[in-house]
Structure formats: C-alpha cells, structure tokens
Design a protein that fits this description.
Elements: H1 2-15, E1 31-36, E2 41-44, E3 56-61, E4 66-70, E5 75-80, E6 86-95, E7 100-110, E8 112-115, H2 116-125, E9 138-141
Parallel strand pairs: 1-7, 8-9
Antiparallel strand pairs: 2-5, 3-6, 4-5, 6-7
Length: 155
C-alpha cells in the first residue's frame, strides 16, 4: 500500500509533462507570374505550415506599377497600370498566428500582341467624344493588306 501511495503522485506528475513541439514557421517561397499589358492576374499564393496550422496572408509592400488586392486566404488580384510593360513585384507575408514568413512575388508584364485589323476597326468605330485607343504596350500583327476587310467600316 505504501508503494502505491508513492507511485500515484509519480504517475500523476509524469502525466503532466509536456510533449508539445516548438511551433515551426510557415514555408513561403518567392514566385513569379506573367501577364500582358492591362491584363489582370488572378491567382492564389501558396505557403505550407509544417505544423498544419491555419495560415493568413497580408501585404508587406505594394507593387510600384499596378494595384493589388490580397485576401487572407492567399487569393490576389493584380492590375498593371494602363499601358505599362516591364517588371513589378510586391512582398507578401504569411502567418500561422505565431510565426511569419515573407516572399517576394514577381510580375512580368509583357507587351500584348494585337490584331491590327481588329484594333483599327475599333478605332474607326469610335465616336468623336471617345478617348483614343492606346497603342502603348502593344505589338501589332499585320494581319491584313486587303481593303475589303474594312468594307463595313466605310459603309
């Protein structure tokens, strides 16, 4: 009986010991996306947490050449500035509630390839009060040399 009295507190104390591991930071790598002039990027940032914790995303620094909306689940929308071509980037942060990680998200905005025929038809269809169509940030394909392609414009 005496041994049982000594063993009971020892068993209770050993049951109170902590087996908790230290929390690990989320893993979040730099990544890149490609778009064209004035084309929106709608994507999702992906990070993982070694402990399986829920993750929440936020913006550390905004892009210089476009606008950005980032949801806490990692979904984001990037809109390049009008007529912009070139590189842009922003820094996003992810947290598991205790620890954080940051990554640089790079965006390459390429020139849009545009049909000269369609673009010129759109220009002819504009009203005098309309803003002119932009040609910046676009590469035009010479897709017609036949004036008949413009017949409906000049009717």
């Amino acid at each position: 009986m005496r041994k049982l009295i000594w063993l009971l507190p020892l068993a209770l104390l050993s049951g109170c010991g902590s087996d908790d591991k230290a929390n690990s930071a989320p893993l979040f790598a730099d990544t890149s996306f490609v778009t064209e002039t004035e084309i929106v990027v709608m994507e999702r940032l992906m990070a993982t947490d070694p402990d399986g914790d829920m993750l929440s995303y936020s913006i550390d620094s905004q892009p210089a050449n476009g606008s950005l909306t980032l949801n806490s689940n990692g979904d984001f929308v990037y809109q390049p500035k009008a007529e912009y071509t070139g590189s842009d980037s922003f820094v996003a942060r992810v947290t598991d509630g205790e620890l954080t990680a940051s990554a640089t998200i790079r965006l390459e905005v390429n020139r849009a390839t545009v049909s000269f025929l369609q673009y010129s038809k759109a220009a002819f269809a504009q009203q005098e009060t309309d803003s002119p169509l932009s040609t910046n940030g676009r590469d035009f394909t010479q897709d017609t040399d036949n004036t008949a392609d413009y017949a409906e414009v000049f009717q």
